[in-house]
Predict the 3D structure of the following.
Amino acid sequence: MTFRPTALRSGIAALLATLALSAPARAAETVVAVAANFTDAATEIGAAFEKATGDRVTYSFGSTGQLYTQITQDAPFEVFLAADQARPEKAEAEGHAVDGSRFTYAVGKLVLYSSEAGALDDGSDALARPGIAHIAIANPVTAPYGAAAVEAMKALGLYETLEPKIVQGKSISQTHQFVATGNAELGFVALSQVIAEEGGSRWIVPQEIYTPIRQDAVLLTRGADSETARAYLDFLKSPEALAIIGKYGYGTED
Amino acid sequence: MTASPLFDAAMIETILLTLKLAGITTVVLLLVGTPLAWWLAQGGGLWKEVVATVVALPIVLPPTVLGFYLLIAMGPHSPLTGLLGRQLSFTFTGLVLGSVVYSLPFVVNPIRNAFEAMGPRPLEAAATLRAAPLDAFFSVALPLASPGIMTGAILGFAHTVGEFGVVLMIGGGIPGRTKVLSVTIFDYVETLQWPKAHVLAGGMLAMSFIVILAMMLIERRLNGGRK
């Protein structure tokens, strides 16, 4: 085989031309890591964003802890919608996110849920009902909704008696699944997960008895130069997005 | 986050619980799997192959598929729950049942192979010496198949120690009752407690290496004995 520098050079030139052409196309897409509880709202916001801007958004859903671990390992995410404030704060402090880009995009509401209609007509009294063998919560160490559930049970003075009945889901999605399948009679989940559900019953936990679940968004270092990523974050604050966020049972700032 | 010792009480509790689960599961698997392997090794019609296929399914099925169906089977409205009169999800017993199903082929297949490799002659010889079938099974077939039984026990134990999908889906992560090693490793990684994750994951890696090495050595000794 003979070595032909001209062929090589023209090959490289063609390659560079392709890369140059593809660069703008790639910039019109942004990859967003989203906490599982925000799945439905994010999907609808994504569709609205694509319609409004013509840009594309790709989501990666997971628990906040899992996504954060991936971010520290240089996952190709440009935006991070967490289920808490701690992880976006940490991302900023450790240089994985752009300073000053952090804001609260949604305030999560905790709800006690049963797949049985009427089971929660008495509100929190249902927790003490005999015949309740399992109460599902998300892992309080990794999931903010789990921590809020523990806080609420303590505020109700029921934590000591209920503790042996607690089963933990890895995420708020798995917790919902435990209750939806009836394996656990009751469970603390996010209002957003059950707001569209027709059957079952729910008791919205009063906001005074647990720390509000502020969910923060942050621009990741990888998205610092992406106009699409910044446009997506701006869109998240738009009246259109706020309406969707509210529709899915979240509070919004101010 | 405060600095905590590499080995804490929760970690030791998890390790002991996992060993207990794998130990009990292995005993159950040997008691159930050995007669099953014997029956499958005796040759037979199509439906024996169907049973063999069902036994082998967990090799191919994703653990989440098994976990999903087990979660439904152990739920309050399932016939199994009605039959037993109690719910098995979120219990240690439920984990044992799930692990038995999940690890069954890893125990049955090596034992079945050992029985098949033995052939009919040793038992024919035992019969000419007027040994009753049951006597022949215990004093001739079982000892001859012992390397296969050993391999099955090791594989079943190791496979149960490492399982993730099934225990995740039916366990409920209750410390001391259903929260096992693999789920704990996942938690440590999620909460960025990597030194602890390394202790457990590295331990699993070392154990898996030893298991495979031990099996190769058993196999070599077995082949050497035949020469």
